Amino acid sequence: MPPVIQLTDLSKHYESGFQALKGVNLTINKGEIFALLGPNGAGKTTLIGIVCGLVKASGGTVLVDGHDNVRDYRAARSRIGLVPQELACDMFETVLATVNLSRGLFGKPRNNVLVEQLLRDLSLWDKRNETTNSLSGGMKRRLMIAKALAHEPDILFLDEPTAGVDVSLRQNMWEMVRRLRERGVTIILTTHYIEEAEEMADRIGVINQGEIILVDNKQALMDRLGTKQLSISLQHPLSALPEALQGFNLNLKDEGLTLVYSFDHQQEQTGIAELLKALAREGLEFRDLHSSQSSLEEIFVDLVQGENGTAGSAS
Fold this sequence. Notes:
Elements (H helix, E strand, L loop, with lengths): L4 E9 L5 E10 L4 E5 L6 H8 L7 E6 L2 E2 L4 H6 L1 E4 L11 H11 L6 H10 L15 H13 L5 E5 L7 H16 L3 E5 L3 H7 L2 E6 L2 E7 H8 L2 E7 L15 E4 L4 E6 L8 H10 L4 E8 L2 H13 L7
Parallel strand pairs: 3-8, 3-9, 6-7, 7-8
Antiparallel strand pairs: 1-2, 1-4, 4-5, 9-10, 11-13, 11-14, 12-13
Helix pairs in contact: 3-5
């Protein structure tokens, strides 16, 4: 099956001389949830703007469901719903009128049943007759999602969709996203909350300084780049790591009561048995053992640090 979005050698230069995108090549498959992660200024919003026809590329091509988004703009754009970071609504229109107008702009006939269901799914039906200037920030964010879905797009871009939305409503929104994917809608999201990408995404792409530095299946990425940690709760605190344990990848935490051992779980020899023997030789008794794996956020930070030499913030 051909990709629903295909970017080839996509670049963007601004008159200031800043290069926002540097020859980006990326394919996104139909029906997947694809999370695009990167630090501030990495090029995420520029990339989304180009695909949606809001920003002019300096070079390269964008195919949306096989349609060139420059030569066949209307066909390409009609397949896309966009929820931008900025809250852009007519402040004096009602919620219901705003969503109906958005559907009409794409040449779709009125569909009261669909619009009502959208507003109910987003907990906005009770606000349908209120003007948008009376809504809270979280409600305006949900209204932007309703607008983006009003013309029944096959592709939905969510650029920081849960910013300013409370936890319970955030969960409702992600449930709706899952239902959309079940209907075959392709979802591309950026998020400050990397745990959301870890929970929701099928594949992860990391962009940094205008370049895609990694694209992989989420689980394969975490298996390949993630490390495991063994936390050892000691019976008695240590003031410092004994010399006999210096050869292990250990950190002393919790005021000397916890030893944290990091290891590659894909290696045949993890070193755990040798570590436990070394603890016994030193007469160090422990109360508990607990293992955990690197989170997507830890992997992301490590990737960006490796590219920049400094930590980046996810946005």
